[in-house]
Amino acid sequence: MNSDATKTEPPSTAGSRRIEGLDGLRGVAAMVVVLLHSLLLSDSFVTPFADPRPTTTPGEPMWWLTHTPLHLPWEGSVAVFVFFVLSGFVLCLPARHTRMNWRAYYPSRLVRLYIPVWASVGVALIWIYALPDLVEGSRFLQIHMDPVPLGILRDLILIVPAQPGMTNTVLWSLKWEIIFSLLLPLFILFAAKWRRGLALKVVFVLALLVVGAYEGPIERPYALGVLFQLPIFALGCLIAFEWDRLTALRDRLRNPTPVFAWLGVLVVLFITSYWMVFALPLSEGVLELVAPATRVLQVLGAALLVILVILSPGLGAALSVRPLRWLGTRSFSLYLVHEPMIVAFGRLLPESINPLFLSPIVIVVALGLAEVFFRLVERPSHRLARRVARRFGSPKTPRPKVAEVESA
Fold first, then answer.
1. Residue range 231-240, pLDDT digits in tens
2. Which residues cross the membrane (predicted)?
3. Domain count of the fold of the chain
4. What is the pTM of this model?
């Protein structure tokens, strides 16, 4: 999620702003995940998160927060889809014009990912064992039980058949990030070859997403399998290799603003489609048929959002303001440290506290912890990864800049 090496395009002002806009988008996505987890301190938000079937009526605030575009600020699943698309985009972008030095890439990439993950597991264990066991609280808090040794080992290894995340549930996404990073040559080959077959490649990726979504469980996107998760990265790779075609298409538009506006509407509808479809008067049979397709629409919404940030100068500039750029550079640290801290808040504070009032406090504390983690762990891991790349890179081959983008 952090990106220290995203300035890969020509150094024009517009190009730089678009890339910085992606940094800002990454920061916003991280904040969406933080807000979601802070709201899950209350079962009022856990209930629709676990089962989107309405338990409230259209006249109640919770219905509007769940089944309309008001769900956007706490749609954490799509935020992770955005991370995956961004990782595919940024890791594939240098490969368009540069021969990748895989001897340098692999060890440095693994160092870059695993050191912060291991440190975050340590931080989570400190929170877990320093605080009293939880006897009450929301269902979200109840799942954060004392981890068993095997669960801790899964979180440290990540690439295991079982789902990692016993110490820190966000680690489920790092499993797919690692797998994608290891398979990057195949993704680059897929995106780079047969450029005229773009439509067929997109159809192929969408077909995999559909199969993965219908395999389920759609109510738990973090538990969806390889056929759903890895194609999301592939969309980012395709966007990277079609960068020139996308910008040329935009430049041919006399007035692109209406196009961007309609794309924005489409993004909102796609991202919230999963929640809106459950508010429709549909039978269970129809829902079982339609709902998985809305998860695919959410992925498309995430990919379209990335494209929109790349192509729209206005949106790119809005996401390039200094606070959002700072947030983007700290997003990986924020992603890794926020949930154990939120669980600690839940254990220490009375259950009666409204999470809507608690969330601003949680966010401020999480940002502070993210800055500390960034300075003590993530930034040193950047430096170590660069040293490792120099150590393992072939002296006969110019070493390409290794993209340092993490996903959540």
1. 999 999 999 9
2. 27-50, 70-93, 113-131, 170-191, 198-216, 222-243, 259-277, 297-320, 332-350, 356-377
3. 1
4. 0.91
